[in-house]
Design a protein that fits this description.
286 residues, 2 helices, mainly beta, Porin, globular, twelve-stranded antiparallel barrel
Length: 286
Amino acid sequence: MNLISRFLCIIGLCLFSFSSVVWADWRDKTDLLVYSPRYFGPNAFPIPELRSGLVGSRIEAEVRGEYHYYTGDKTKDIYGRVLLPFVKGRAGVEVSFVFKEDYKMTPETRDERNAIETESPISYNGDIVVTSFFQLLRSEKWVDAMVSINLKTASGGRLCDARHTDAASYWFDMTLGKNLFVSKDKHFSLRAQAMMGFYCWMTNDRVHRQNDAISYGGGLTGTYRNVTLSTDISGFHGYENNGDRPMIWRNNLRYEIKKNILSFRYNRGMKDRLYDTYSLAYIRCF
């Protein structure tokens, strides 16, 4: 029994020492992470959505499946969103979140990002984003103007693999929208919108504890009966120039029938946004 006990103790000590080394390596390597969109997963730094300039008057609940493709990383996730307007559409609150994210990186991408694993050994969720909308101006003659204030929580997992930052960020912006054309029967319309704002996130840099950026966007939305097609180019421009200047070309095709909306998106990543994204969503309006 003494031999068996000693043997088990030796095995236990070896396992404990190994796990301690792995844990120490994981903690040490997080100091090497670069807190910018280029060196993190596709959901770590949400790029502000270009909206119509109107808060809207309907409650919306959305579930979206997404596939993010990059030669060094393939990511799948499920995205959820709930929009609650109030004060007769003059203000609103939106809560969005990513859950059940799965990924597979190449060893080269893992090493470039100073990550630990090429794929997650455990299940994990993403961040929660809370957005408040305020309608500043609603005018058919001039423009519609809306302000949004956004806060991203530090709830996302797998910092060790550079999937989410485990740090809060916030951004606020103003969106202007105007109808360029509306047919007499109102079956067809063409609308332009533009956005400008400020984006800030916390980093692991001991000198520059946060990175600041200017956010921007511009695009068009066309509607014919129950079909809507929108396209825009949006992004933000950080001041550190360490992979913090992503751009994205968004395209969204929506079909609505009896307050049920099917949405297909294709997003083309540019500059420091490395991913192309394909998604399919169901939206229920109330």
